[in-house]
């Protein structure tokens, strides 16, 4: 079988890899769809992000879905032929955080296609992956493989929403309308938000945000004071999801968040300087959010029931052999939202 392996920035190769037979409690999944994520693009363009760097060849990808092909000893709830979304998180399940039900903090986490640890955890952009049986989550017959491969980013956004608490009737601002921003918008609508305003600096993603139900989509590159109307009386929004990882987006929105408001930082850029005096005087809560735990199964469930429809976000699908073209396309925000590879 073959996979999409990164060796260095802009050096993506299609290479032969040996399939791994499933051990006890494992399954081998034949991958059909794989979505390109912002972090895959960071590896592709910059060799990593922050302190995380590629130090050895690594298969990219962690948004994947496919069909169970082979099951190891002791696996009874999965059989060959079952269609599954693959959860890229493989926690150790015996550290203190895992035992406390907070696997996302696991001290020994193996997260697919991540160079955070060495040796790196190999990713899911390959024709088959062997995973813990618990990582393979069966999907509804109505769900396409492309949608199933969106379970991971949806899980990220469901967890971000959980960090904000109830959104019922709330006024919500989403800064940055890449895939995570637009999925967060969809989650906020699903969770009962009364109003969701999104910002970005590119027209194409803002157009998609409107289609997915944004109350207003503001291009802050063209309309620099586009949030000014929301700053009267100490601010308008109850909750803000910062999905761009851009300091200007975060700092520029503080005046639009009302006193007692909550800001959930979803995007990761570089380190930022914050207006601490505003945070203090308006008693704003700044909250982090990291990956997900049980939200992966929830993502598969809500999409399977048709409660959240992310199909409009998949703007292109290319054969995995054309990974370089797909990564170039995924980097072009003037015409791409989520680009997927077909295996
Ligand atoms: Zn653990």
Helix content: 10-25%
Helix- and strand-based class?
alpha/beta
Q: Termini separation (Å)? A: 10 Å
CATH hierarchy: architecture of the largest domain: Alpha-Beta Complex
**How big a fraction of the residues is strand?**
25-35%
- Tell me the name of the CATH class of the largest domain: Alpha Beta
Describe the structure.
This protein is 24% helix and 29% strand. β17 (257-265), α8 and β18 (285-288) form a beta-alpha-beta unit. The chain is α/β, with parallel strands linked by helices and 343 residues long. It has ten helices and 20 strands. It has two domains: 2-150 and 310-342, Medium-chain alcohol dehydrogenases, catalytic domain (Quinone Oxidoreductase, Chain A, domain 1), CATH 3.90.180; 155-288, Rossmann fold. It has helices spanning 38-46, 96-99, 145-148, 151-164, 179-190, 203-211, 247-253, 276-281, 295-304, 323-330; strands at 2-8, 11-16, 26-35, 48-49, 52-53, 58-59, 63-71, 83-86, 89-90, 110-111, 128-132, 136-138, 171-175, 195-200, 216-219, 237-242, 257-265, 285-288, 314-319, 338-342. The longest helix has 14 residues, at 151-164. The termini are close together. The strands form five sheets. Strands 3, 7, 8, 11, 12, 19 and 20 form a seven-stranded mixed β-sheet that branches. A six-stranded parallel β-sheet has the order 15-14-13-16-17-18, with helices on both faces. Strands 2-1-6 form a three-stranded antiparallel β-sheet, covered by helices on one side. α4 crosses α5 and α4 (151-164) packs across α9. Bound molecules: zinc ion.
